Amino acid sequence: MALPKLAVYKFASCDGCQLSILDVEDLLLDIASVVHIANFPEASREVVEGPYDLTLVEGSITTPHDAERIHEIRRQSKYLVTIGACATAGGIQALKNWKDTDLFMRTVYAHPEYLETLETSTPIKNHVEVNFELRGCPVDKMALVEVVAAFVQGRRPNIPEYSVCVECKRRGTPCVMVGHGTPCLGPVTQAGCGALCPSYNRGCYGCFGPMESPNTEMLAAAWQRLGVNHRGLVDAFRGFNAYAEPFRITSDHHEALAVAKGE
Amino acid sequence: MSEMYVSGQSGVGRLIQALAERGHRVIGPIVRNEALVYDEIKGVEDLPKGWTDLQEPGRYRLEQRGDEKLFGFVVGPTSWKQYLNPPETVLWSGVISPEGFVTDPAPEPPKYAFFGVRPCEVAALGVLDKVYSTSNGLPSMAGYTAIREQAFIVAVNCVEPGGNCFCVSMDTGPTAEAGYDIAITEIVHNGNMRYLIEAGTPAGAEVLGDMGNLEEPSEAEIEARDFFLTEAAANMGKTLEVDDLPELLKGNARNPRWESIADRCLACANCTMVCPTCFCNTVDDNLSLDGTHATRTRKWDSCFTLGFSYMHGLPMREGVGARYRQWITHKLATWVDQFDEMGCVGCGRCITWCPVGIDITHEAGAIRRADLRDTPIGIGGFA
Ligand code: SF4
Ligand code: SF4
Ligand code: SF4
Ligand code: SF4
Known about the structure:
The complex is a heterodimer of chains A (263) and B (383).
Chain A: E1 5-10, H1 16-22, H2 26-34, E2 36-39, E3 52-58, H3 64-76, E4 77-83, H4 84-89, H5 101-108, E5 132-134, H6 141-153, H7 164-171, H8 176-180, H9 196-199, H10 216-225, H11 230-237, H12 245-260
Parallel strand pairs in A: 1-2, 1-3, 3-4, 4-5
Chain B: E1 4-7, H1 9-21, E2 25-32, E3 35-40, E4 51-56, E5 59-64, H2 81-84, E6 88-97, E7 100-103, E8 112-117, H3 119-134, H4 144-150, E9 152-156, H5 167-170, E10 182-189, E11 192-199, H6 202-211, H7 219-233, H8 245-250, H9 257-264, H10 270-274, E12 281-287, E13 293-300, E14 310-311, E15 314-315, H11 320-339, H12 349-352, H13 360-369
Parallel strand pairs in B: 2-8, 8-9, 9-10
Antiparallel strand pairs in B: 1-11, 2-3, 4-5, 6-7, 6-13, 10-11, 12-13, 14-15
């Protein structure tokens, strides 16, 4: 029986998530034994025509050309999984959604007339139907293996949607927010990294985006009690997942308050 | 009461040694990341001499006491359940081979000595025993009994309760009454650090007997011990009114207070993770890419996650108010139906380690003040 065909596509992104696939080392051979790596330019020159059974999409939509291209990829893909903060939330480049794109173009490029770009950076799900989203900046490489294994075995990927705090406590890290007064996004952020930053005495940066039921406003209030002002809250929620709705609403709210207070 | 002995700090060290010599891995309080956590200790010098913990709702700080106390603090973010039911346990793993399905050898259960178990925690071990051992005639949870039966318990009575402690309300402290092999009370007497030591089981008596060189306490020392423990009972950081509490909570399923808690609660699950008695687990099955190697892993779970109540395609407790209500009602009400006691021992961890400082004693009190049992809105099921 022919192996299911795997494709990997890149949109606006840093390549870090795709690299995580190569970073699984020995397991890469196992992946290659259960799927046919049919279209993965970063790994192999061989490109086999679609359609594909499993397509991994990295990156966000920032150009009219990409906004077209993703539809063709969707048509070619039986099962489409977005990987990383860019593909699932628009990425760090979604910060441009709050700014004037024309101004950037005029400032950075000598001949902006050669460029074609959109005003926004948006996640893939805003353009086509997505079957599964794997979060993270970057994604966790073992989670990628789990997504491929789940696909091959015909089951749902076992990826948690609860808070980073659950992983933090399982790991046995004393809470930096309660114990040191260090602001942490862990309570509103989806697990997946193993609560890495708190284990190094840092607050969570929110790389995995909003958890299943994020109470961002109440966490923001707790940060304010720790001395963070509205401007600081805007900066915290406008990270790699700035354009994910719960983070976006909270940063917009505090931006309005920061402006009103002259922060 | 069994015979009481007394020693200085060297006696505490000798006790740690004696347990290690008997093949126990001794686990006790140490300082890590600015908190007191339970981890392996090799001797008395590993104990957090001179440290204390300041605890408020949502806030914890370590401070130097300016004295020599080895146990001048209460409980931190870890609890003994971490050793009895580790956060992640491989239940089994195995491979499909030509000989069929072959499981990997299971590791030997570790033989621990828990050193510095607070009276509320001794009570929590009893609560966990009921849940995981043989309660309701069910088989015990895989791996639990093997670890639990070998564990040697050294309790430390509390002469200085913490800011969020309410063991007196739950009748679990500040003096351990049973459930320990050896109990220690640390007092300062005539300017000296004194440790009053007693055995609670024959195993404890045997260890003390082997140690030798333990003195008999003076009457004044015993009086001082009793005085400090009585004082401690009068100085609890918090109180919880337990009278009629199970009926109160079960009868207020539709109280609007749950929605006010939902506004504040992050559903982060910290409260259930730090609770020494919360027992919920989830089980993950993992199959290698080629489908030949399988692993079944048990992990701590919490009723604050959406997945916890996921059935027939959707979560039964979508709202955070319903999830908080589940937590507090289980701890203080329906646990009694299941196990004939409450699931809370009054350690205060859930109050301290809640990032937004939600306080179980305060919320139970708020429901009591807004009791709606006599109005049509309060009654009804767990909608
Ligand atoms: S350190 Fe952050 S992630 Fe860990 S428990 Fe505290 S708030 Fe949650
Ligand atoms: S419910 Fe809170 S106070 Fe009660 S035992 Fe659990 S953590 Fe301790
Ligand atoms: S309160 Fe929640 S996590 Fe704790 S034992 Fe009950 S259902 Fe489980
Ligand atoms: S009560 Fe506190 S610790 Fe528990 S889930 Fe809510 S916010 Fe988290």
